[in-house]
Amino acid sequence: MSEFVLSSSRIRVWRRPEDHPLLRQTDTAHPAFQGKLSERFPPSIAEGLPKVLSENSEDARTWHYFSPLLRDEPQRSRVLTQLIRQSFFGAVPPQVFKDIPAAKLEFWPKLPPPPSRPQAEGDSEPDVMITLGKSAVILVEAKCHSGVSEFTKFDRKRDQVIRLIDVGSWYARQHGFDCVCFLVLQYGDAQTNAEKIVSRYAGQPEAIQKALPYRDDLTEGEFSRLAGAVAYVRWPDPLF
């Protein structure tokens, strides 16, 4: 039997995590990864296999890059220091860099919208949440071949980046973090809308405030800090 099947769109989907070239050296017994195995294609597509086993899976790339940092403290410090300096240098307090060695990573957390939001909305699920003591929390939204969603189920004007800013800033406030940062991380060279949508809000406090008129818990200074903590970064696609 072949290690993979071809989906209806001719995309390889491996049958087991240990067959997938990005997953075979990772801890696929971890509860966060096991939860991803329950998200499957319809039976008519790729035999109903888990979506994370697809060659196009953003989740597989995220697990490949970030899950080794759970157990490798020196590598965790190197990667996070470089990532924060590249993306948010000047936007985070100095204490952040001192807290990097003890950083905690959570994969695919579910974050509720602020209660002041008037439209109905379910939980958001960023790909990685990185907490650094109480000095900062960083939310990472990963992309590969697909772009940033420009609307939600109940709001045609709410794109994925402003939604992340909204739920992330509320989470940070509720849990007492000094700083919150937002990163859209693109794997590979695909041309998507991700950088364009990030530019709507990076350095644009007025745009954030206009998109979140119900966030009366945020001051003008806080809107400015949020705008300074939104970034777009491109990493190599580890599969190609």
Integer average pLDDT: 96
Shape: globular
**Helix/strand structural class:** alpha/beta
Query: Hey, roughly how much beta strand do the residues contain?
Result: 15-25%
Characterize the largest beta sheet: strand count, sense, and whether it forms a barrel. Answer: 5 strands, mixed
Radius of gyration, whole Å: 18 Å
Reading the helices and strands in chain order gives: EEHHHHEEEHEHHHE
Number of strands: 7
Q: What's the end-to-end separation, in Å?
A: 24 Å
Strand order in the sheet with the most strands: 3-4-5-6-7
Low-confidence stretches: none
Determine the fraction of residues in helical runs and give it as a percent range.
25-40%
Please give the count of helices. Answer: 8
What this model shows, in words?
The protein is of the alpha/beta class. Helices cover 30% and strands 15% of the residues. The protein has eight helices and seven strands; from the N terminus they run E-E-H-H-H-H-E-E-E-H-E-H-H-H-E. It has helices at 31-36, 58-66, 73-88, 95-99, 160-175, 194-199, 205-211, 220-227, and strands at residues 4-6, 12-14, 104-107, 128-132, 136-143, 180-187, 230-235. The strands form two sheets. It has a five-stranded mixed sheet. Helix 7 (205-211) packs across helix 8 (220-227). The radius of gyration is 18 Å and the shape is globular. The mean pLDDT is 96.
